[in-house]
User: Fold these one by one.
Assistant:
Number 1:
Amino acid sequence: MKIVTIVGARPQFVKAAPVTKALIEMGHTEIIMHTGQHYDYLMSQVFFDQMGIPAPEVNLGIGSGSHGWQTGQMLIHLEELLQEKKPDVVLVYGDTNSTLAGALAAVKLHLPLAHVEAGLRSFNRRMPEEHNRVLTDHCADLAFCPTQRAVQNLARESITRGVYLVGDTMYDAALHFSAIAHQRSTILQDLNLEAKRFLLATVHRPYNTDVPDKLRMILNAFLEIEEPIVFPVHPRTRQKIAELYPTLNRRRPGNDLKLIEPVSYLEMLMLEQHARVILTDSGGVQKEAYFFGVPCITLRPETEWIETVETGWNVLAGDRIAQIQCALSSFILPDRRPPIFGTGSAALEIVRLLSEAMSP
């Protein structure tokens, strides 16, 4: 079986790593195409290096741009490459512009399309990620769902054929790489952090970063919190922060806001596991907080991972200072953490189902 895997952004590298490993172990041929949506070392190459993912056969180097331009450039080049490679199936992950471009290129060439992390819905159509995931699901021949809720979301849209509940490949990755992170990462010592004595923050969604008032409110909330906050800053977010706060005061009495460069996957796992609370607008980080039993405050009014809210491990705080502070001060740790993301064998199940579907 020949598979073309299309990735382009940091979360996709994490989701793809366990599947790539399973494909290699089962003797299948995988051609990795990197769109270049994320392109600097700390946002891209370090993930291939640390996670043992084979180097992409193709890197389109598309880079940054408007959503329409970026998606269009990817679509043009991916269509040409898929015609050349003639894979048995095209594999896409998540909800980025790379995901949608890969899906459209495959479906227009009548190539079987498989979507890993299918069925997610935030029901916020102002998020570009929501359009990407909905359109990709409706193009897909095989929809690999991480949770039962995702299966139900697809059923409500009359997508029932080729739908499989497999679990979450990010959980596979977290189980495998967290032990490696403990052996290799020195980030806690490098940043002079004590376990459970700091908060971890990430902000990168256009929903927050492209609206100055939203980003300003979030930053002001961070500056008011009287605990150390470690904030690995996405390059795009750093540019937006610089526009709002040309001389951001990183230290106030009782506050220590550490704005640092993006960190590698292993370093992020260490920070997540040892944080007292995580504040984020990232879907992947919300999940990883749940994997490690760390309270999460989501800096959005909704989430595609509603299960983490229903179980009490995640609180939706939006961008308001009072709501963020209230969530932080009143968080009550739940007694249980149900296994809603599977057993850590999602990648093996995905490859098994792909093999069955592509068999003559």
Number 2:
Amino acid sequence: MADKLFFFVDPKNIVDSNFTLDKTESKHLLKVLRVKVGSEIWLTDGCGKSYRAIFKKSRNDIVSGKILDVLPQYGENALKISCAIGILKKNKMDLVVEKNTELGTTRIIPLILDRGIKLNVNVERLQKIAKAAIKQCGRSVIPEIFNPIKLADLLKTYENNNLIVCHDSGKPIDSQLLKSAKNNKEILLLIGPEGDFSNSEIMLLKKHDAKFINLGKRRLRSETAVVVALSLLNNILDN
């Protein structure tokens, strides 16, 4: 069993230093994980705070207890990373959302692109996946899941110029590339669909001064590129 067991707590269910879990989380604690009264547990509200707590009692299968410590931004990066990715087929978007969440992304933006096959995603389903993933990895913020948007429309609304695009034409990522990003405290990572970005999309990104990075000699699937790119970004930013 993991050392830290995280459960989602609604901020409304925290009064002073006392918490109450909802039916779903209480059932998971009592029936699935079989946590004993008096055990230390961890809570996350998905809004920016995590808590170290004690499971005090269960009444009518509803768990309550005492908060010991409040930990703002627990498990969060100092630099915000948003990930915009071409919509993928089948359950690949589920994987993308799960791994984005585990790797600290704050916003996940499905892109409608020229070579993309799908135009829609089930936002509600993806939100549930993200919520489950923050408990697994121990984060305090649930990433925001956007409705699908066209690349041109996204770039019109994105005021920050810290655009990093995964593409074969780019250079290996290094700390110099992220120097300006640290000043603005935000990065928008862009990853193409299974057919990659079109030439017109590449030109559009260049007009917005996007920086292009190469993830290595091998050609990666989009869902793999997410994990590789975010891992590299996190490694540089952490150091």
Number 3:
Amino acid sequence: MSFTDKVAIVTGAGQGIGLEICRRLTNAGARVILNDLDKELANEAVRKITNEKGDCVAVAGDSSDLTVIQQLVNTATSKFGALDIVVANAGITVYGDFFDYKPESFFEVMKVNLGGSFFLAQAAANQMKRQEAGGSLLFTSSVTGHQAHKNLAAYGMSKAALEMLARNLVIELSQYKINVNTIAPGATLTERTVSDPGFESTWSRITPMGKPASVEDIASAALFLVSDGAKHITGQTLIIDGGWTSVSPSPY
């Protein structure tokens, strides 16, 4: 897949899945605005990509902050002249028992996972509409939006809502040649999950394909859905979980 001359924004990309999506996009010729809440992490991620000859700039900040969202879009257009692809990947997970889940945790999860994705899509779609050349939007959901996970009611709720957002935006965006889809990763080996000593062994045991996903597995699916080869695919969710949602054994 070639992304030559395409301009992309990827949020939550200082490490893990987001970083790998950025790497793959730049390796395929795209110019990328990389966002992460952690400024040092964002700058280090950009250094890694530029060392591989990728064209990438960092815009650090809270991806649910409307000022940061506009800064992302403005940077894409001022530095690279257009905006073609947006991957709203940023999200937070706050575990907690339903019976005493804190309101501040609930609203923070909704603010980042839903609000950030919604208003980034809005700002990006307005820019793509003005350009009249179309574009691609991609949200990062989760298998927890399809199957219940203990202590993740709020998180799973937010991820299921993202998938409905993608379906609804088909009505709003198709006339402007903008497609919008969602990926729903299952258990994935990232810097965060590998720090859990039981994560890989547990998910290898309960995943039909015999192992958790790698960040490369998730990035491959993401790149397809924002490529020109997927322009007639819109409003869809692609689950990448090694078959786990087909059988759904609990990790607990």
